Q: What sequence folds into this?
């Protein structure tokens, strides 16, 4: 599905990712954990194609294509989805209009006809039920005045509507109440299949009780310093990141100071 | 953030999509302006003596006036002697039906996507098309006549309904009002006249498509709409001009009058040629639009979507004379490249319990300048008057300017006047969010600006709103990377 090799990236001359290697195959769920500022969101942004970040080294292959060559909207068209840690507000643009545009733009990219109103509504109702989504949110301006939890739920609702091949969920659980975590996780699980994959970024083991990962990786100072099974998440929860830091004293020092 | 701005700069306005010239023999006045020019125009139109006298009075007044400079716009001096003040498409006979209209002209309409048949058949819009100063092809006349509604060109109105024209012309915008209004009064070539009798609700949107055509022809339209007691009319004005190198002056005057319980809704979509990317050419648009709510409980509502012209100088205003009368101004003004707009409104509260609402959305891109200028005046007899103003600016890039000049004069302390203003930028994070969902930047910008302008767009009649949305997107095409 996606092969990340020795990925280095930074912003405004500051190096943040210092050689990421990650291989995700169809049907797999990977979790990335790591202390604040370790580069998790940066990795997600680089994969999604945010232009501010400069890739200085390495390669990313997505479904057989060179991902780094593609524009962000082309990556989306190819089936890459990012649930943002901080979803953006667009005043005056209704959520439903935004999602309809997104769905049809992705269809256009794939050479499919746009969905007509009836087909779109049918799909929407189906996914709304799945996500327990409040209908009134959809007629409101995109994310404007949404509560933290509503924004996160809206991200996963969009994922359900777009049915991506690879979904990156950046701290989708933070800000969600206990019931909402369950609903969102159930939604994600229902969308899971043998030909798509999920990369979950989280700080909490709790989410991983619901979305059970095949692999857990620890990102630290822009590098994956430890990988393991889901038990690794439990271990981190118990011990904190200190043992990781102690095991990796040399890279404690950020690359740009060297 | 800084990155957003630099990419914006690299892109420029798409080529003007309506830039073509219709090849019709023109019947022109000699270049320049004098009493003779005024007499020529009046004679061409077979006007009665009183009309000529009125024009001459305006001309003499104009000769003693100087061009105003208070607006936040810059342009080279205009040579008023280098303008052709009258140009009419030659036609052998007055057309009785659409089929008799010059095919060349018909094609122009078709290129604009406003073929008269289509309009007629599909949307039920009566179109009074003004091409270069003379009105051609008025549809739906019979149907309107049955209701006693008069909808015709100004020239025709002067001939057929002189008592009405004489009574109302210049009653809202006097010939002495301002430099451009005086000029218009002297040399206006044509325009629309609309009279809605007592108690009649006009069953369709009345619409005029203006189009500037012959080279070097200033356009001086004159529009007058009178809504008698208890009547209602919605009027649409839309326009596109062919591409030109030289600047073209446009100085229209629009007057609206509502009696007791009457309502006029006046909507404009203006996309005249804005000039090229370097700021050459484009229309100079100096317009005086004013309405008076003469009667109690009457209402005048202006809605404008301004995307065109090199210079826009325009303040559609309402004099709220009748008690309980309402004035509204909804505006979207887009400037890109070197465009300059100084636009806004005046709400003059004179009667008791009068209400006004101002919603202005300015969108600036390129190195353009976009100013909102508004006056809310509460007279000493305007007890319990209310005004609410909302002025929002959206910037694309950091080389453009957005300015707000709100003036408030309150002479009656029972008034409540509220003013809110915001300035925002299209954020790179907003664009990226859209991109991540598969939406390209062009479409993302269109979505964001249409969202920004929604409150105003919602005021437009349906068929116009769709066109206006496209225009917004076209005029900002390529302005964000
Ligand atoms: N635009 C930027 N300019 C400068 N530094 C940046 C920028 N974006 C990210 N960084 C820095 O890069 C580092 C990694 O940030 P990132 O957001 O990827 O961390 P994270 O692992 O997602 O953290 P968290 O768990 O808090 O979400 C941080 O030190 C951050 O301050
Ligand atoms: Mg993060």
A:
């Amino acid at each position: 599905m996606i092969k990340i090799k020795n990925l280095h990236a930074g912003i405004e001359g500051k190096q943040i990712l210092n050689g990421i290697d990650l291989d995700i195959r169809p049907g797999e769920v990977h979790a990335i954990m790591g202390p604040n500022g370790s580069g998790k969101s940066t990795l997600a942004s680089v994969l999604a194609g945010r232009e501010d970040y400069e890739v200085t080294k390495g390669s990313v292959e997505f479904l057989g294509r060179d991902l780094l060559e593609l524009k962000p909207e082309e990556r989306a068209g190819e089936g890459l989805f990012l649930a943002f840690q901080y979803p953006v507000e667009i005043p005056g643009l209704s959520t439903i209009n935004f999602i309809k545009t997104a769905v049809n733009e992705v269809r256009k990219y794939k050479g499919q006809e746009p969905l007509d109103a009836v087909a779109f509504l049918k799909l929407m109702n189906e996914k709304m039920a799945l996500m327990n989504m409040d209908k009134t949110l959809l007629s409101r301006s995109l994310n404007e005045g949404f509560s933290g939890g509503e924004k996160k739920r809206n991200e996963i609702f969009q994922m359900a509507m777009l049915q991506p091949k690879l979904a990156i969920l950046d701290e989708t659980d933070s800000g969600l109440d206990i019931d909402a975590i369950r609903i969102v996780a159930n939604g994600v699980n229902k969308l899971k299949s043998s030909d798509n994959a999920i990369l979950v970024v989280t700080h909490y083991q709790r989410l991983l009780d619901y979305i059970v990962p095949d692999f857990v990786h620890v990102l630290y100072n822009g590098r994956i310093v430890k990988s393991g099974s889901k038990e690794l998440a439990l271990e981190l929860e118990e011990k904190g990141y200190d043992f990781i830091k102690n095991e990796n004293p040399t890279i404690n020092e950020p690359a740009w100071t060297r | 953030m800084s990155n957003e701005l630099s990419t914006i700069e690299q892109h420029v306005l798409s080529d003007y999509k309506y830039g073509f010239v219709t090849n019709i023999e023109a019947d022109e006045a000699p270049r320049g302006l004098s009493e003779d020019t005024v007499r020529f125009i009046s004679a061409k139109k077979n006007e009665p003596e009183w009309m000529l006298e009125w024009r001459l009075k305006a001309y003499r007044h104009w000769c003693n006036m100087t061009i105003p400079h208070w607006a936040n716009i810059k342009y080279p001096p205009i040579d008023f002697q280098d303008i052709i003040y009258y140009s009419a498409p030659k036609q052998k006979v007055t057309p009785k039906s659409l089929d008799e209209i010059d095919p060349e002209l018909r094609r122009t309409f078709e290129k604009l996507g406003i073929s008269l048949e289509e309009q007629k058949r599909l949307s039920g819009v009566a179109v009074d098309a003004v091409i270069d100063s003379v009105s051609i092809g008025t549809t739906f006349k019979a149907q309107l006549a049955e209701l006693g509604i008069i909808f015709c060109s100004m020239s025709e109105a002067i001939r057929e309904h002189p008592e009405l024209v004489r009574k109302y012309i210049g009653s809202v915008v006097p010939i002495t009002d301002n430099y451009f209004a005086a000029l218009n009064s002297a040399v206006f070539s044509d325009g629309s006249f609309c009279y809605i009798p007592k108690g009649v609700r006009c069953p369709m949107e009345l619409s005029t498509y203006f189009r500037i055509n012959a080279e070097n022809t200033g356009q001086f339209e004159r529009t007058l709409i009178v809504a008698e007691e208890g009547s209602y009319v919605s009027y649409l004005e839309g326009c596109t001009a062919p591409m030109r190198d030289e600047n073209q002056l446009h100085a229209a005057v629009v007057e609206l009058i509502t009696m007791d319980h009457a309502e006029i809704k006046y909507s404009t979509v203006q996309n005249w040629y804005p000039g090229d990317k370097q700021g050459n050419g484009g229309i100079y648009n100096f317009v005086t639009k004013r309405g008076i709510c003469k009667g109690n409980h009457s209402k005048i509502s202006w809605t404008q979507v301004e995307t065109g012209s090199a210079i826009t100088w325009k303040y559609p205003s309402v004099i709220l004379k009748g008690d309980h009368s309402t004035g509204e101004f909804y505006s979207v003004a887009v400037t890109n490249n070197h465009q300059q707009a100084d636009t806004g409104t005046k709400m003059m509260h004179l009667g008791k319990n009068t209400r006004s609402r101002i919603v202005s959305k300015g969108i600036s891109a390129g190195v353009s300048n976009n100013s909102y200028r508004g006056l809310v005046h509460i007279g000493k007899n305007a007890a319990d008057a209310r005004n609410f103003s909302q002025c929002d600016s959206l910037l694309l890039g950091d080389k453009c300017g957005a300015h707000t000049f709100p003036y408030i004069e309150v002479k009656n302390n029972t008034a409540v006047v509220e003013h809110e203003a915001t300035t925002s930028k299209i954020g790179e994070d907003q664009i990226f969010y859209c991109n991540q969902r598969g939406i390209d930047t062009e479409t993302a910008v269109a979505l964001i600006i249409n969202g920004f302008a929604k409150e105003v767009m919602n005021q437009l009649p349906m068929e116009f709103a769709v066109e206006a949305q496209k225009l917004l997107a076209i005029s900002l095409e390529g302005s964000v990377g």
